[in-house]
Design goal:
Pfam families: HATPase_c, HisKA_3, SNAP, TPR_12
Order of helices and strands: HHHHHHHHHHHHHHHHHHHEHEEHEEHEE
Shape: elongated
Radius of gyration: 38 Å
Structural class: alpha+beta
Keywords: Coiled coil, Kinase, Membrane, Signal, TPR repeat, Transferase, Transmembrane, Transmembrane helix, Two-component regulatory system
InterPro entries: HATPase_C_sf, HATPase_dom, His_kinase_dom, Sensor_HK_TwoCompSys, Sig_transdc_His_kin_sub3_dim/P, TPR-like_helical_dom_sf, TPR_rpt
Strand content: 5-15%
GO molecular function, one term: protein dimerization activity
Protein name: Tetratricopeptide repeat protein
Strand order of the largest sheet: 2-4-5-7-6
Length: 651
């Protein structure tokens, strides 16, 4: 997890470190007024360049438009200094948008002009920015070369702030190369300097980077402490970029600790801050992580909304590692929606993309090794030419060439073997994932078949047994009215049978209701219980009924259909017993939640009964049996002032 943490790279090595009493929006408004008043082309070109710069801090789309205008205006005037600056500013805009290839192209164009002008400050600035771009592209060798060039200039000129910033990025490179102790040494040095010079923004950034090192070194408690310090410092100066990174990394920590809700809160804050920082790549990265959290919490609709939102960005920018993670999250979403075709589609896309990623990494490493090998060959040719002047020196150089060539070839074979081994591991993991997916799809299919069977049984109960019971009631009524000379005793017996049959129909409907549902919520129970109590009121007009659900109860809490039906039957049996035997004036049904359990209370003010002397009947035994089946506990307390039945159901 720790290596997924977000590192802050210090990109803007000149004007971004200069504080201002105005915020960028105020400066932009002022510059627009100046632009409307400006009449000279040179003045307008400078103002447009400034607008590009300040818009890059608040709105990358507007910055992109002004960046194009700035390049056009500078070329129209023919001022090489302005052209170089416009190209550099436009590169920064593309960096912020996540288009690193375009950013590097414009940095290189600007560098050619700066080198012709022998502008050492401008050259150092571009070396620094190119280092950050290569760093983000994970081309670590190139990044190190440009960082070291910039660092040498800043050390030679005594610019401690920018030298420390460059060292922070070099520390981040050591982290990427797994040189953790070396990376930590750089960051600790930066933190001491930034504290001493009161550089709050840079201090917050350095703390974020240090926390990432602490995480990978398994010092989670110190990492959380460091991130919280960064948040405190960054909030004081409203440094949204660092706040976004800090909360993002804090969310990663909470995910590793399985504190999913805390991770969700941290990622939400990260997204809030990154929405205001114009760092599109970082914002979409946080959204992708949050989508994964939604999937973990079973919030599949929320996860899919985020995935649909960020998918165009990753497809457009071609960030394959992130796109691969996105496809993996889609598999979970579509499996939850019982859409096996879509799940299989994204599983195939994921496997295809993983093969591309591994292949590209292998190709890049092979090309780099090939280039190094060719370089060594050229060097050896030069050595041979020089060696003609001294035969002994030639022998020594030939031996060295053979040794270096052998080592290079051995390294190449070793790396290729390592890559093939990793690729095989990846295929094995993919096969495992496919097996897990097939199992999940089979479970979904089994659940669907079970639900279809339950629906079929419930229809048969309703259409066959329900119709037969209704026919019995109708036949009894016709019998009573068709034979006027039926004795009173026989008439009462027929009425009793009719009432019993009617009650059986009601209970059959309750059973069908439960079978038609895969899950039952408190909201469903509330409606069913309210309907039952309304019937009870009609049966006993002298008894007052009340039914309340406490505010602490989550009405959307889900029970299985078996659990929900057992709870309903227990309440129904308790109310029926109170009506039949207790001679109660008041019957209450209350539902509340305490300490992770739901409490369901059925109380009356009737005559009660002596539990020691009265043998438990089928009704009370059935209630206790139903409670045990759902993992609950049933308590019965009775006195001559009434009876209280308490059902405790685990949350």
């Amino acid at each position: 997890m720790a290596q997924k943490s977000f590192f802050i790279l210090y990109i803007f090595c000149l004007l971004f470190f200069v504080s201002t009493s105005q915020n960028p929006v105020q400066i932009i408004d002022s510059l627009k007024i100046q632009l409307n008043k400006a009449t000279k082309d040179i003045d307008r070109a400078k103002i447009i360049a400034d607008l590009t710069w300040y818009y890059s801090m608040v709105n990358t789309d507007s910055a992109y438009v002004y960046g194009k205008k700035s390049i056009y205006s500078a070329k129209k005037i023919g001022d090489s200094t302005l052209i170089a600056q416009a190209l550099s500013d436009f590169a920064v805009v593309n960096y912020s948008k996540g288009d690193l290839k375009t950013a590097l192209d414009y940095y290189k164009k600007s560098l050619l002009i700066r080198e012709k002008q022998r502008d050492s400050i401008g050259i150092a600035s571009l070396h620094y920015k190119m280092g950050t771009a290569y760093h983000k592209k994970t081309q670590l060798d190139s990044a190190m070369i440009y960082y070291l060039k910039a660092l040498k200039f800043y050390e030679d000129t005594g610019n401690e702030v920018l030298a420390n910033s460059a060292e922070s990025n070099i520390g981040a490179l050591h982290f990427n190369q797994k040189n953790y102790n070396e990376a930590l040494r750089f960051f600790n040095k930066n933190i001491i300097f930034f504290r001493k010079t009161d550089q709050s923004k840079l201090l917050g950034n350095a703390l974020v980077n240090k926390a990432s090192i602490q995480l990978v070194m398994k010092d989670t408690l110190e990492a959380v402490k460091t991130l919280k310090e960064s948040i405190k410092i960054s909030e004081a100066i409203n440094n949204v970029e660092t706040l976004g990174a800090s909360y993002n990394n804090l969310g990663e920590v909470f995910m590793a600790q399985n504190k999913i809700e805390q991770a969700k809160d941290a990622l939400s804050k990260s997204i809030q801050y990154r929405s205001n920082s114009n760092m599109d790549a970082d914002l979409t990265s946080s959204k992708l992580t949050l989508a994964g959290i939604h999937n973990t919490l079973g919030e599949y609709k929320k996860a899919r909304l985020l995935l649909d939102e960020i998918r165009p960005f990753y497809k457009r920018e071609g960030i394959k590692e992130k796109l691969s993670t996105l496809y993996l999250q889609y598999i979970t979403v579509f499996a939850s929606e019982k859409r096996p075709d879509s799940a299989r589609y994204y599983s195939a896309k994921y496997a295809e993309l993983q093969e591309e990623i591994v292949g590209e990494k292998a190709l890049n490493i092979t090309n780099e090794l090939g280039a190094k090998y060719e370089s060594e060959k050229k060097q050896n040719e030069i050595l041979k030419q020089r060696a003609q002047l001294a035969e002994k020196d030639l022998e020594v150089r030939r031996k060295n060439t053979f040794i270096f060539g052998s080592l290079g070839f051995a390294m190449l074979l070793g790396l290729l073997g390592y890559l093939l081994y990793n690729q095989q591991k990846l295929k094995n993991r993919q096969l495992q994932k496919e097996g897990e997916l097939k199992t999940a799809l089979a479970q979904i299919e089994t659940q669907n078949k079970l639900q279809e069977q339950r629906l079929r049984i419930s229809r048969d109960l309703h259409d066959n047994i329900g119709a037969q019971l209704t026919f019995i009631i109708s036949s009894i009524d016709n019998l009573k009215y068709g034979f006027t000379d039926i004795s009173e005793k026989l008439g009462d017996k027929l009425t009793s049978i009719s009432n019993f049959t009617s009650q059986t129909i009601y209970e059959l409907r309750d059973t069908i209701w439960a079978m038609n549902k895969e899950n039952i919520t408190f909201e469903d129970l509330q409606a069913r219980i309210a309907n039952f109590i309304e019937q009870a009121k009609n049966a006993s007009e002298r008894t007052e009924f009340s039914f309340t659900i406490d505010e602490t109860v989550n009405e959307t809490h889900v029970f299985s259909s078996v659990e929900g039906m057992n709870i309903y039957r227990i309440i129904q049996e308790a109310v029926n017993n109170a009506l039949k035997y207790a001679s109660a004036d008041e019957i209450e049904v209350n539902i509340l939640k305490e300490e992770g359990e739901y409490f369901i209370e059925i109380a009356d003010n009737g005559v009660g009964f002596d539990q020691a002397s009265i043998e438990m009947g089928n009704g009370l035994n059935n209630m206790k049996k139903r409670a045990r089946e759902i993992g609950g506990k049933l308590q019965i307390k009775s006195s001559n002032h009434g009876t209280r039945i308490l059902l405790r159901v685990p949350k």
